[in-house]
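> tool_call: predict_assembly(chains=two)
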Amino acid sequence: MLSLLAQIDQVPFIRPEIDWHAVAPELILLGLGALVTTLDLIFLERIRRFMPTLTGLTFLVPLIPILTLWNDSESLPRSMFDGAYVVDRYSLALKILFLLSGYLVVLLATDYMAEGDYYDSEFYQLISASILGMVVMSSARDLISIFVALELISIPAYLMAAWRKRDLKSNEAGLKYMLMGVFASAIMLYGMSILYGVSGSTNLAVIAQSDILRSGTRSIVTLAVVFTIIGFGFKVSAVPFHTWAPDTYEGAPTPLTAFLAVASKAAGFVALMNVVLVALPPQATVVEPLMWVLSAVTMTVGNLIAIRQTNIVRMLAYSGVAQAGYMLAPLAVYGQTFNETNPANAIVNYLLVYAAMNFGAFAVVLLVARKTRSGEISSFGGLMNYAPGLGAAMTLFLFSLAGIPPVGGWWAKFQIFNVLTQNPSFFGISLAVIAAINSVFAAYYYLNIAKQMWFMPEPNEDHTPIGFPAPLATALAITVVATIVFGILPGITGDLSDFTTLAGR
Amino acid sequence: MYLTQYLLLAAVLFCIGVYGVLTRRNGVMVLMSIELILNAVNINMVAFGVFNHVDGQAQVGGAVFALFIIAVAAAEVGVGLAIVLLIYRNRQSIDVSEASLMKG
């Protein structure tokens, strides 16, 4: 240790170049989030009413530098800190996704939090912190920044899951999520420490070029890779690391459930993609079978359990587990398809569509629950009779989740199948067949809800119309438009992957 | 001094920690077991940092990573203890196996 300190003394300190334009979105989000927190502390009750609006603005203002960066396409990709922090089209698209997700969560939470009897402004500050972690994650290309971003996402989410302090279910949701999350990140760190040890660097692109990763399969490297992926498997709720998801989703406040099911899961996928696609191409022979098994098991188990659910939030939770299985599928063939059809492009497009349709479904669940005070699927009976607009919107989201054209979901699924079958191989074709069978299973339980809404009677003969608070109506409008646009204008997002420059090739 | 000594110590600590997480029923003991795993990671990181030489110079990457882990682990345990305390207030027990209201 002393020799290390003596050597540090000899290394001159060089101040790293900082590209202020490239980090502007993060800095603005951090600054505004801190400002909103300070305002809350100063004005207390007097400003509480405006917290949702202020937090919504916190998420929308950073979009301005992101759009100017997007337009300045010649300067992309920009990189800082020896390639540890990279801004490219892929990361910009994800930042837009995360910021808009944050805005949608605020819209979903506004009335839910105002009507509950728990402190509400802290909720918005925790959401801001979590979204900042996601925005950082999109650009993180270093084990340290990925770890810090992952914890910045997770720690506020543990608190928010246990939000309803006197509700035993919410306590339990927080406890399960926290214990499983901390355990998974500890295992992930052990994997990362070995990865750092064998490759000599924490930078993903440098890890990819280290001799030991390029020299074929070794048990120590396999151990490191498997442990690291287990940590991300928890975040994306891949089977067998999904056990926390349904309980946490059911017990947590419903807007937070939407946040965990969409934004937090997307952030897990971003971390997984960054590590697998940038650092681990030389280890494709190890990662591909692992991803094949994870993907096949995740989609099958998720769908089989989702069919049995009677609570709509639990059903959406298990359907989210199954959808994560589809999203993992392109990573099972990334070694072969890397140059032709980039798996990252398929996954990012799926995440965009998934965010739109899942947030929409949760908005409808929240609206219906405001009237029925129930989370059972049977409470959707007769929705078409007394709220045809809401019923039509829910039908749209369910068709999209099931992957039926012309709404968004089919395009997302099509891209996954496209990647899997591009280079015919046993892995790709067999996984495509499993995914196709699963899509049919999934359509059954999605359409079962549609059947409830269209053909079943209202529970308790209750025909009172559903109230439409402005924030929820706005969230519903945004998600309906996004789901339709992604479906009828496939490929509108363009090619969102320029990973080739990142892997240092 | 050999690198393997440190790695063995870390591996033993890691295994004790995982065993503790899987068998302990007390919420605080589970959190302490997780701390053991994180300390195993820290030993790994610092040892690798000292023994990995690039161009004859030891690296600071591992030590810096360990510092980040220490800071984040403090935040994690702070939140964890708060949630365990919340559970204790509501049901006068921190037995994690009793937290089973929701199933299926």
